[in-house]
Amino acid sequence: MSEASQKIFDNEDEDLMFIEEDERETKTIESSWKVLIVDDEIEIHHITKLALKEFCFENKSINFVSAYSGKEAKEIIKENQDIALILLDVVMETEEAGLEVVKYIRDILDNKIVRIILRTGQPGQVPEDVVIVSYDINDYKTKTELTNKKLFTTVVTALRAFSSLNQIESSKSELEKIAAASARFVPREFLKFLKRESIVDARLGDSVQAEMTIMFADIRSFTSLSESMSPRDNFDFINSYLTRVGPVIRQYNGFIDKYLGDGIMALFPNRPEDAVQAAIEMQQQVKIYNKHRQNSGYQPISIGIGLHTGTLMLGTIGEAERMESTVISDAVNLASRVEGLTKLYGVGIVASVQTLCRIDDPQHYKCRFLDRVQVKGKQTPVAVFEIYDGDSDTMIELKTQTQTYFEQGIFFHYQQQFAQARQMFLRVLQVNKQDKAAQFYAERCETLMKNGVILTVEGIEI
Q: Exposed (0-12), middle (13-18) or buried (19+): which is 49, by Cβ within 10 Å?
């Protein structure tokens, strides 16, 4: 028996007996504290287990685990992340084996919760003040001072701290889950613009002014499509569609502000080009989705996307007990109306000139002028363009091939030379019968000629 072990016996009022070596492994208890004893002296394991044999704290006993070297301790700790307390010898196979275990636990395993109590039989060799400052331990004891009562007190203190830290960690984990769940309802980007760390910090009336590109996207003919589906099928369909296009918006640095039934309102705070690229990719995703729908026996779908860039107010509205994030501005209303033009002209993407002129190289995209539209309540018409990079390869080729005729038709239309304009649009249709915008203008010119109408306002009113 070592001198340190003998001194422990001498300090006890009651006789202690060794537990036989084959009894070192205690039975696993369903509700217990897992305590690791790390010491190269087998009698220290026996004495510690005997001293804490009747231990009970918070209605839980101790389940002992033993290691007889620093190397063995590292392996056990790695495989047992639920260890609550480690009674750790310093000098084992090397003079600093225990200290190396401490560094391994804290730095490599990044375990900050397990309590570590250093026990040494050679206190002068590793000074307490140096160790306590340099290593993340929770207590430092000499083996001779840990009598039964002091050992009990030390262990209770350590386990109480471990229990509290576990509760804090659980609460932290729960808060992180709540924060993550909240972000599904209020985008983190929204809070970022309001300079709030989390939804907890949001206050009624918080607002900020910024220039952004607003996107509205809508499923074509959704009403008639939904009539053939049950309510459950409607939900499944919309979620299936949104699962495909939502990630695209995030991929291009945007965030969804609102779900509008079958529609989406999204904001792109960085570059208008992000919104353009997202719109094109969303059209590509719909093509992929349609292949899946057709293979499953469902009708293909199409979507219309409107883009406009302008200044808006982003903030919270409502009342103290119920509020929500929202965006308010004329720019939002205009973006919604621009999206509505996709139905009128039969195109996939329409962007206002305010969006297109903020792109570094608009010629990089396949686009053509559509119209100048008069917004209700506004005096200045807004020029709008079709971006057709998201169309099928065949449609892109045909629209590019007929673009000169289309633009000439638009020019004659604004010159109120409707016969010449109609001829240009008919030429487009001879090449591309599926060009709905050309079909719209051909029919409009014919109507204007029949009725003898003289245009006094550029374009149409939205």
A: buried
Rounded to an integer, the average pLDDT of 198-227 is 80
The CA-to-CA distance between both ends of the chain, in Å, stands at: 96
What pLDDT is recorded for position 227?
Answer: 78
Cα(439)–Cα(34) distance, integer angstroms: 78
Please, which residues have CB within 8 angstroms of residue 139's CB and are 6 or more apart in sequence?
117, 118, 154, 157, 158
pLDDT tens digit sequence for 83-118: 999 999 998 999 889 999 999 999 999 999 999 999
